[in-house]
Amino acid sequence: KAGVTQTPRYLIKTRGQQVTLSCSPISGHRSVSWYQQTPGQGLQFLFEYFSETQRNKGNFPGRFSGRQFSNSRSEMNVSTLELGDSALYLCASSLVGRGEQYFGPGTRLTVT
Amino acid sequence: GQQVMQIPQYQHVQEGEDFTTYCNSSTTLSNIQWYKQRPGGHPVFLIQLVKSGEVKKQKRLTFQFGEAKKNSSLHITATQTTDVGTYFCAGDRMDSNYQLIWGAGTKLIIKP
């Protein structure tokens, strides 16, 4: 079956702008988690959605938000971009939130 | 706070030498998962350990889960260039709300 897809793969934005990233999970997976990864850093948890409900949220400012649709596809939005938001944004899907995570290829966001 | 400590942060080895990374949780885990992220790639699930004292092997990789279910290790015998990458553990804490707690990762570097 098809893996997790993320669009776009690369994005360049300017400070102050906003951005929306998309994630399509593996068919049948109802949980989607989002992570931020900066060079040399681990995986910083952003939030997790299950059946359109946000179940968990990491320690990120309110500029970071997300949602999940009825088909389990998820989007995350970052408003008022800052230079420090430059990172690889990964989404992962799973059958249940704590189960085996299947990661997408990520969206590499550069803020200039 | 919720933590899974992973050490070391980096390990430089000669090809053919062994590699080990350790994860320690302050509380009991219901299970622990291991992932590998190749340079430029995304994390890929390796294995999940569930039982106290469990040991699993995948070719040259040996995974252990402590008796108290608070620590785990990944050992690679006779490293090869294909082993290069960052290894992450992710713990499912019994008291967490559907959220995996991730270690910071150990980067395996093969000396030239």
Structural category of chain A: mainly beta
Strand content of chain A: over 45%
Overall helicity of chain B: under 10%
What is the 3D shape of chain A?
globular
- Which class of secondary structure composition applies to the elements of chain B? mainly beta
Give the total of beta strands of chain B.
11
Total of DSSP H or I helical runs spanning 4+ residues of chain A: 0
Question: What does this protein look like?
Answer:
- The complex is a heterodimer of chains A (112) and B (112).
- Chain A has no helices and 11 strands.
- By secondary structure, chain A is mostly beta strands.
- In chain A, the strands form 2 sheets. In chain A, strands 2, 4, 5, 6, 9, 10 and 11 form a 7-stranded mixed sheet that branches. Chain A has a 4-stranded antiparallel sheet with strand order 1-3-8-7, with no helix packed on it.
- The termini of chain B are far apart.
- Chain B is mainly β and 112 residues long.
- In chain B, strands 2, 4, 5, 9, 10 and 11 form a 6-stranded mixed sheet that branches. Chain B has a 5-stranded antiparallel sheet with strand order 1-3-8-7-6, with no helix packed on it.
- Chain B has no helices and 11 strands.
- In chain B, strand 9 and strand 10 form a beta hairpin.
- The model of chain B has no long low-confidence stretch (mean pLDDT 93).
- Chains A and B meet through strand 5 and strand 10 of A and strand 5 and strand 9 of B.
